[in-house]
């Protein structure tokens, strides 16, 4: 996690604030006043503040400028170039947490976060689950460094391609496997906002010709890593969900897609056969999932782990923009909410 204490207050540099607001507004920042406050609270000196403003005006994501992102009520360290956790991914955390919390209380859940990026998902799950055996992995060295800072002593973080760096003894033991794998089709990368396209690692965005290349690889090997009845969860888009479900079923998992309208999020949940049973293609499981609303798979909004960081405006909780499922922008977050925690 990152230090949230303010270093340069508005009162200590009152003349700088209006200049920062003016520069940000001229550069097209919609929430210039709020961004100015965040930048000034993160800067140690006037000079550092000016440098941060220059980086923001040049198009860097605000999260990279200040060095952190808000996710599930946590401050997640995000270095330059590392994928910025999106608010929609809080739904993935909520679904994974619900499944882990449904396990027998006497058993310590084994959770793996593949394509972990900054470690935001793993850090949030470690916070909500408490006593959990957490493992995370990513192929990007910069992301791995961030994840180790964010997860800390809450779990082990490995550098490598998908399952390759994981300890062999995890085979057949994983209760909940989450993978926020890249799912933007290669041809749609050019349509992303510059903040993502130009400043986040390509490996964290590009999902191949149809966006499902990495998901297929994750699903193909999942059965040998999951415990009997274990779950694989991936974030995807509404338009890709049906194909992701079929991919899971082809890998021997029962599968269903669940959605959250408020977060504009879609997650596909696959379940390995229970001990002594064979997989049944197309049979979905709802054990441990959040309650569904109506007759469809739409699920209520997923609460966050804890209160928003002090002084947060919600700008560093990134949501989905209006242009389509692959375009993200910073949007104000809602009020603080909490996930249920595992009983002591």
Automatic annotation (TrEMBL):
Protein's UniProt name: peptide chain release factor N(5)-glutamine methyltransferase
Alphabetic keyword roster: Methyltransferase, S-adenosyl-L-methionine, Transferase
Listed InterPro entries: HemK-like, MeTrfrase_put, N5-glutamine_MTase, SAM-dependent_MTases_sf, Small_mtfrase_dom
KW Endoplasmic reticulum (keyword) present: no
Enzymatic reactions: L-glutaminyl-[peptide chain release factor] + S-adenosyl-L-methionine = N(5)-methyl-L-glutaminyl-[peptide chain release factor] + S-adenosyl-L-homocysteine + H(+)
SUPFAM superfamilies recorded: S-adenosyl-L-methionine-dependent methyltransferases
The enzyme's E.C. designation: 2.1.1.297
Region (Disordered): 274-344
Class of enzymatic activity (EC top level): transferase
């Amino acid at each position: 996690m990152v230090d949230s204490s303010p270093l340069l207050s508005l009162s200590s540099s009152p003349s700088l604030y209006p200049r920062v607001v003016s520069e940000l507004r001229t550069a097209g920042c919609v929430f210039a006043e709020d961004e100015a406050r965040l930048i000034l609270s993160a800067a140690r000196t006037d000079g550092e503040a000016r440098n941060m403003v220059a980086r923001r005006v040049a198009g860097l994501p605000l999260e990279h400028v200040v060095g952190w992102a808000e996710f599930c009520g946590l401050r997640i360290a995000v270095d330059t170039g590392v994928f910025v956790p999106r608010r929609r991914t809080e739904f993935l955390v909520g679904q994974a947490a619900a499944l882990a919390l449904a396990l027998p209380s006497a058993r310590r859940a084994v959770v793996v976060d593949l394509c972990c990026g900054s470690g935001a998902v793993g850090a949030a799950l470690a916070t909500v689950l408490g006593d959990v055996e957490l493992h995370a992995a990513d192929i990007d060295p910069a992301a791995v460094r961030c994840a180790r800072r964010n997860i800390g002593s809450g779990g082990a973080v490995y550098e490598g391609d998908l399952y390759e760096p994981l300890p062999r003894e995890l085979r057949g033991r994983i209760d909940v496997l989450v993978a926020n794998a890249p799912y933007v089709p290669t041809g749609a990368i050019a349509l992303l906002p510059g903040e993502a396209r130009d400043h986040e690692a390509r490996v964290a965005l590009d999902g191949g010709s149809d966006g499902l290349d990495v998901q297929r690889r994750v699903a193909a090997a999942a059965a040998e890593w999951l415990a009997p009845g274990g779950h694989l969860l991936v974030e995807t888009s509404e338009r890709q969900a049906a194909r992701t479900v079929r991919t899971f079923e082809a890998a021997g998992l029962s599968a269903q897609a669940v959605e959250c309208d408020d977060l504009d999020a879609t997650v596909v949940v696959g379940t390995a056969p229970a001990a002594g049973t064979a997989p049944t293609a197309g049979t979905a499981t709802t054990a441990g999932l959040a309650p569904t609303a109506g007759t469809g798979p739409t699920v209520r909004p997923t609460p966050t782990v804890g209160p928003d960081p002090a002084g947060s405006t919600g700008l560093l909780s990134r949501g989905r923009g209006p242009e389509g499922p692959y375009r993200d922008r910073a949007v104000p977050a809602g009020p603080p909410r909490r996930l249920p925690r595992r009983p002591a």
